[in-house]
């Protein structure tokens, strides 16, 4: 056994003490930072994460009931009693949507719920209600330009269908992501046609068609709108795909999809090919 010299131990202790004096403050700050992160995460899990879970659960219930209502309304043999029952259920659904938005207004769940409510209002021809609901949706700041664009386009379409062409035009002229340029240009064409500005309508429709041509995406309703104004366009041949790809892609998992825009457009087209009235 080899004894360590006492003076060596004293030297080591003194060296450690000097190092502690030199770096001790940094070590304390590092420990405090680690503790702050740990307890901050614990606080988030106990509070905000719980809030997100509550909002998600509320939206899931709304989504399930919405789907049930949609399926029920497809029944062509509904009698008056059944229709009244569905109307009452829809009223309760709206109440739950309003409660979700009031409690969790700046979440994607609130945005999705408002999209559902606006769709029901549009189907019921409650255009004033749809305009108000979609206006509320556009005010939600989710830091997602795509979701904002969807809300804006739907809002403008509801305003157009409700006869507010100037309001719709103001929204349609706002900047949007390039992925929505075809829909924005088609919307502009609908608005200009409603204002009887035919040359502007032709130009906007043509712009939309050219954007779709670049993407090799066909849109039959747009082709009909162009043809009705005397503009003949070459058909767009979609690129063959080895894998079957659906026509619409989800915006967010479990939520509304891009077809919401086309749905409102289709509703408008059944009323008038251009104006939605």
From TrEMBL:
Gene Ontology terms, MF aspect = protein-containing complex binding
**Record InterPro entries:** SecYEG/CpoB_TPR (IPR018704), TPR-like_helical_dom_sf (IPR011990), YfgM (IPR026039)
Q: Where is the Ancillary SecYEG translocon subunit/Cell division coordinator CpoB TPR domain?
A: 23-230
- Subcellular localization: Cell membrane
Q: Which SUPFAM superfamilies match?
A: TPR-like (SSF48452)
Q: Which UniProt keywords are given for this protein, alphabetically ordered?
A: Cell membrane, Chaperone, Membrane, Transmembrane, Transmembrane helix
A single Gene Ontology CC term: plasma membrane
Q: Which family does it belong to?
A: Belongs to the YfgM family.
Name listed for the protein in its UniProt record: Ancillary SecYEG translocon subunit
Q: Which organism is it from?
A: Moraxella catarrhalis (Branhamella catarrhalis)
